[in-house]
User: Fold this.
Amino acid sequence: MRKGFDMSKNKRALFLFLLGIGVLIIIFMLNIALGSVNISVSEILGCFFAPENVSRAHRSIIMNIRLPRTLAAIMGGACLSASGVLLQIFFSNPIVEPYILGISSGSTLFLAMVILGGYTFGFASIGAFGMFLGSFLGAMLVMLLVIFAAQKVRSVTTLLIIGLMFGYICSAGTSLLTVLADRDRIAGFTIWTMGSFSGFTWEQVGILYMVAIPFLFLSFIISKPLNTMLLGEKYAQSMGISIRSFRFLMVLISSVLTAIVTAFAGCVSFVGLAVPHIVRTIYKTSDNRVVIPAACIYGGVMAGLCDMAARLVLSPTELPLGAVTSIIGAPVVIYLLTRKKGGSL
Assistant:
């Protein structure tokens, strides 16, 4: 870690931030412009500033389909990347990703009960929003169990194993429901488990942003104590940090950020693992005052790029987003790691 890292005096970091924002804007525009129907940049801008000059069909495609999906992908990538940074610090392990604690398994189990088992929990029917809300609650239930466990154990390795066990328990329940379900229901459920930002409504985007923005801001606020944690828990404790309370806060923030994305988009793997590595490598720092905002920017870039690739590569067939993120992210991480001296993490 570089102490005293000053953004105002570091032209490289400033350039990389501006580059990331510029690329993010380009990805944003391309996601809206490209598809089965191509839309010009002038029409996209006209949709916001002069909607009467844009055809009703193109305006509907932009406002009801592509814009919500693009906004969701960018924010989803930011959430998973920030969550990945926190968990890698928490476990002192660079290969940890946001889904390691079994949080996504809670979401998956609830949706399996609804989609595969046909449970409505006393309601006449459960709509799409109700399923998303239940998925979020399922993820948060597992998160609360993990947080409770975090208060009882001191070893982060033990907590990691507990999280994996919760994941296995939820996965076992999902597997049982899958075996007993009809084939037609299995198809739709399988697509969800592969991850996708398609089908987002403005209401869902609003909820995603209302939950995500405060917790992303909170993750940045604690970046200085996170830097202290990089030097070890004993050192952090000597600096006046309550280790147990701070561990609780780290798990809470990372879990909420992961849960809100999983509830709406399914399991979007690898973004939270790859982006923190990419950011630390290109910025050449572990200072979380830089890494966390940079991870949000480049996480949005990666998620937006992967979502666009999933839509366009074999159009009109849409590829599983999780597969695309792994195909793009894994080689990048391998390349960056092999460039390091000794190939160390």
